[in-house]
Amino acid sequence: MNLYPIIAIGVGACLLLICWLIAKWMDKVQKKDKPRAFFQRHFRLSIFMILVSIIMAGAAISYIIYYISQVLGLLVYNISKLDAVIIVALITGALSLITAIVAKIIGYQKSRQDYLAKKREQPYEELIEIMDKIQQNMEAGYSAMEGLTEEELSTISKQVTLWGSPKTVSTWVELREELREDTEVDHRFLMEELVNRMRKDLGLAKIKRRNFLSSLLRDIRHSKPATDETSIKMIKK
Question: Quick one: which of 189, 202, 190, 188 has its CA closest to 236?
Answer without folding.
Answer: 202
